[in-house]
Amino acid sequence: MTTLEIILSVGLTLAIIALVISVYYNIKHGLLILKFIESLEDTLDILDQKYTSISEVLEIPIFYDSPQIRGVLEDIRDSRDSILVVANQLGRLEDFEIEDSE
Predict the structure, then answer these.
(1) H or E stretch including 28?
(2) How many domains does the chain divide into?
(3) According to the model, what pLDDT value does residue 7 have?
(4) Residue 35 belongs to what domain range?
(5) What is the pTM of this model?
(6) Could you report the per-residue pLDDT of 21-55, keeping only the tens digit for each?
(7) In the chain, at which end, N or C, are there fewer CB atoms within 10 A of the end residue's CB?
């Protein structure tokens, strides 16, 4: 075996080891990303349900015109709007991940 063959064999062995390590970490991180996306979708579903239920409550007319009740209703409206903002931001994160994979 010549020196060139030994050097090429060692180089090939090192490249195969690097490839195996790379494949391991690619699979590991790919599974992590898939779990994150699943939890993100579950979170968006929950936020959508809460947004719908809060919107239904806000559509019910109130018969008591107290400033405290009006303040609570305004707080609920603000909470509903913040749920929508969070859901939109999470949805944008999901869109970025989909665009990156294409």
Answers:
(1) helix 3-59
(2) 1
(3) 94
(4) 3-101
(5) 0.56
(6) 999 999 999 999 888 888 878 887 887 888 888 77
(7) C
